[in-house]
Give the backbone structure.
Amino acid sequence: MKKIRKAVKAIVSAIKNPWLLNTILSDDAEWKKYIEKKYKIKNLPLVEINDLIPCFSETVELAFLDGSSLPTDMALLKALCKKFERCNYFEIGTWRGESAMNVSTIADKCVTFDLSKEELRKRKITEEEIKLHSFFSKDKKNILHLHGNTFKYDFSELNEKFDVLFIDGDHHYEYVKNDTEKVFRNLIHEKSMVVWHDYAHSPETIRYEVLAGILDGIPEQFRNNLYHVSNTLCAIFIRENIISKEFHSPAKPDKKFAIKIETKKLN
C-alpha cells in the first residue's frame, strides 16, 4: 500500500508541477518512447537545406564560445529572413545576442525576448554571466529587447505578427511546449516560419525532450508541417510544399560547406 500511495503522490505532483516530468523522463530514450507511443513517429522528416534555401550562401559572425550555434544555424535564419520583404523577426532566448545580431543585418525589425535579470538571479546565474546577456545585440538600433518569463508573459499584448520566429529558450520539455503554444497562439500569420534551436544535439542526433515539447505544443493541424533541417540543429515549421525524406543516421555526405575563418577584434 505504501508503494501505491507513493506512486499516486508522484503522479499528482507531476500534474501540479509539469517540470517534474524532467525527473521522471530524464533520459532521452524515455522521451523517444513517449513520442513513439503518442505520435507513432521516431523523428521528423528531413528537408535538405539546399531544397529549403536554393543557392544557400550566407556570411555569419560567431564567437565560437559556449552556447553558440552552428554556423549553418545562423546562416539558415538569415536566409529565411531574406524570403520576406522588410522581415519582422522574433526570438525567444537571447543569451549573448549572436542570432539577433546576425539576423539584424537582414531583417527590418528584430524583437528578442530573454529572462529578466531578476529571473536569472532566481536561477542562481552569476552576475558575471548576467552581464554577458545581449552582449552582441544590445547596441543594434533595429533590435528591441524584451524581458520576462515566457510562462508569465502575455504575448498577445505585443499585438504583432512576425515572419520568422526562433525558439531558443530553455530546452526542457515544459518550456519548449509553453513557448511553442504561445508563439502559435499569438505571433504567427499565414506565411510565418518558426525555427526551434537544439531540436538536435548534433545534426544527426535528435534531442527527444525538445521534440516532445514541440509536438505537444504545436496545434495538431500543423504537425505535418514540421521538418528537421539537414546539417543544422534546427527543426522548422513551414507551410510551403517542400521535398523531404526519412531521417537517417549515419548520413552519407552529399554536399560540403566552404567556410572562411577570420577574426575581428572587438572594441
In short: Strands lie at 46-47, 88-92, 109-114, 143-147, 162-167, 188-196, 200-202, 205-206, 226-229, 235-237. The chain has ten helices and ten strands.
